[in-house]
Amino acid sequence: MTRPLIFEQPLHERIRLLLRLEALTQRFGDALQAGQPYDHHEALVSLVDIYALVTRVDIKRELMGEIERQTANLQRLADQPGIDSSRFRSTMDDQRRLHSALEEQAGALDGAVRENEFFNSVRQRMALPGGAFDFDLPIYHHWLSQPVEARTELLREWFRPLESVTEATQHVLRYIRGSGNDRSVTAEEGFLEQPLDSQHAWQMIRVSVDPQLGIYPEISGGRQRFTVRFMDPGDFRSRPNPVREDVTFGLCCCAL
């Protein structure tokens, strides 16, 4: 079977922030592992974006707040019949460990790069169209010519202060994604609108689409309802068109 394409729509800014951070750290890790000079260029670009993101908001406070909220909600399940007590204790231990790791991390996350002249020279050039060129930054050209081990070591050193934040982000999003129940629904003439139960603090809508259909969803949502409209991108050279046929797809509404 073809693996479905998953489209996720965050329903408030905290989840939007965590999804961006998750995507950037995955991009960094993939480029770091690939190891070629221009893979490491992409790894450094991702690292610049990550630091721009985590210094724009207090990401540690946001994560700690989300872990605290999840822990309180999970605690209500402690006495439910059929609960796996061993797995529950392991989950709660993870929650406490990650919260403590964030709480104990001293200093600003960007302390390792804030005063680094090389990193900052690259960061400044990245703000320009085309980014860093050899003729603008000879030191960058020289760095890309270094052995892969040397480049990898420096990139890992710069990423190290972000490890607790990265693990906590993955943990939080994993539990949010696992909180919903996948179901098959049909968008009549390519459009679906559904209310959201106000008794729950909904955080994310996930839509699964068979890639062989050649279409994609546009998802919008708020606290009370959400919509899914399917679009046909055609050959990507002209404007997409709304799908006018019924579409069956996977839907998961997540709240923890």
Overview of the molecule:
The chain is an alpha+beta fold and 256 residues long. It folds into two domains: 5-175, YacF-like; 181-254, Sandwich (YacF-like), CATH 2.60.440. 50% of the residues lie in helices and 18% in strands. It has helices spanning 13-34, 37-56, 59-75, 85-104, 111-114, 117-126, 138-144, 148-159, 163-178; strands spanning 5-10, 183-187, 191-195, 204-209, 216-221, 225-232, 241-242, 247-254. The strands form two sheets. A four-stranded antiparallel beta sheet has the order 1-4-8-2. Helix 1 (13-34) runs antiparallel to helix 2 and helix 4 (85-104) runs antiparallel to helix 9 (163-178). The protein is globular.
> What's the overall average pLDDT, rounded?
91
CATH C-level category of the largest domain: Mainly Alpha
- Proportion of residues in β-strands: 15-25%
Biggest sheet features: 4 strands, antiparallel
Question: How many separate structural domains?
Answer: 2
Shape: globular
What's the N-to-C terminus distance?
30 Å
Order of SSEs:
EHHHHHHHHHEEEEEEE
Poorly predicted ranges (pLDDT <50, ≥5 residues)?
A: none
Classify the helix fraction into a percent range.
40-55%
- Put simply, the count of helices is 9
What is the name of the CATH topology of the largest domain?
Answer: YacF-like
Secondary-structure content class = alpha+beta
> Quick one: how many beta strands?
8
Keywords: Cell cycle, Cell division, Cytoplasm, Septation
InterPro entries: ZapD (IPR009777), ZapD_C (IPR027462), ZapD_sf (IPR036268)
Organism: Thioalkalivibrio halophilus
Subcellular location: Cytoplasm
